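To illustrate the input format used throughout this study, we show a single complete record. The first block contains the structure-token representation of the backbone; no residue identities are included at this stage. The design step must infer an amino acid for every position from geometry alone.
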């Protein structure tokens, strides 16, 4: 039952309720995109990754498919055995290419995927050894930082941490800095971090990825209101809200909002929330980075940039940082 309890030992359902009420009672209103991913949200995100406008997944996949041998060489430069820790491993469809290359190079490593979802970890432990019989794998189910502590207790080998999928983009710049600093605290000199960033590019292209004409991203955002209705006894009328996405090329912030289409009241459990016509709820940031932004983030948080791996179109980068 470990995953049912958050850091402060508040049951997940009441943590969700507290966060939703705090966000909707704030001025301006906001909800956290970490709550997008219920079963339905996972399905919609899968559809997003298959959209032609959403270039991120294919770009990073191309990097892993085509450059994993080079990544493996870089990782093995220190020569010693190591633990490969993946934060938010999911189904490892991208990292499997790196795992193959590391095995092919006959490196001595254990793969420690970390995921908040118990069934993701169970599936990985079940399926990966069938595809990669020589793989040593030990799944860790729970919060990233708690599981990193656990990984350090399991072995004192060198750590190579993977944080892919541009998940860092779902933090604002201050949160990303804090996250990298906290991660650095868990690591030791010469450990590596391989971290995926979506790069600043033509604003039209970025906006299209988050504002698709078929409305998949719209339903991804609206699904959180449905989830509140289902799990927190809410009565949102979904058709009273619309999705709005924006991209600011000066800051690299791509943001999504839900807009209230009329003056309305929504009940969530015992609480009532009032929305003015055209009032927005801030839902998600997908921060885009320049190469200078990425290097600055590394040096501010205790890492040295070592190398960069781009897709052919240079839409995306997997940066390799060494712990100072
Ligand atoms: C998971 N994350 C990196 C995605 C992104 O691009 O920010 C989530 C997403 N939101 C809308 N489309 C995709």
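Output of the design step:
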């Amino acid at each position: 039952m470990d995953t049912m309890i958050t850091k402060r030992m508040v049951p997940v359902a009441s943590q969700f309720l507290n966060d939703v009420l705090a966000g909707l009672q704030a001025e301006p209103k906001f909800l956290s995109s970490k709550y997008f991913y219920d079963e339905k949200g996972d399905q919609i995100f899968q559809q997003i990754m298959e959209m032609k406008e959403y270039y991120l997944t294919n770009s990073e996949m191309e990097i892993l498919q085509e450059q994993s041998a080079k990544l493996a060489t870089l990782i093995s430069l220190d020569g010693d055995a190591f633990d490969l820790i993946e934060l938010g491993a999911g189904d490892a469809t991208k990292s499997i290419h790196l795992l193959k290359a590391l095995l092919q190079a006959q490196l001595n490593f254990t793969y420690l995927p970390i995921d908040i979802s118990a069934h993701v970890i169970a599936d990985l432990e079940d399926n990966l050894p069938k595809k990669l019989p020589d793989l040593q794998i030990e799944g860790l189910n729970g919060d990233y930082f708690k599981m990193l502590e656990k990984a350090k207790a399991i072995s004192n080998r060198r750590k190579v941490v993977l944080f892919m999928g541009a998940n860092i983009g779902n933090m604002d710049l201050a949160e990303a800095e804090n996250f990298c600093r906290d991660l650095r605290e868990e690591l030791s000199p010469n450990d590596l971090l391989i971290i995926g960033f979506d790069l600043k590019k033509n604003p039209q292209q970025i906006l299209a990825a988050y504002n698709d004409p078929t409305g998949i991203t719209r339903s991804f955002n609206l699904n959180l209101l449905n989830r509140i209705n289902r799990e927190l006894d809410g009565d949102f009328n979904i058709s009273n809200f619309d999705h709005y996405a924006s991209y600011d090329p000066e800051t690299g912030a791509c943001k999504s909002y839900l807009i209230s289409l009329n003056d309305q009241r929504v009940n969530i459990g015992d609480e009532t929330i009032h929305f003015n016509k055209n009032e927005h709820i801030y839902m998600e940031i997908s921060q885009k980075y320049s190469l200078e932004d990425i290097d600055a983030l590394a040096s501010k948080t205790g890492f040295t940039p070592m190398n960069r791996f781009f897709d052919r179109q240079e839409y995306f980068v997997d940066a390799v940082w060494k712990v100072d």
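Structural context for interpreting the output: The pocket of N,N-dimethyl-L-histidine is lined by residues 48, 56, 165-167, 169-170, 210, 217, 220, 284, 286 (CB under 6 Å). The CA atoms of residues 128 and 286 lie 30 Å apart.
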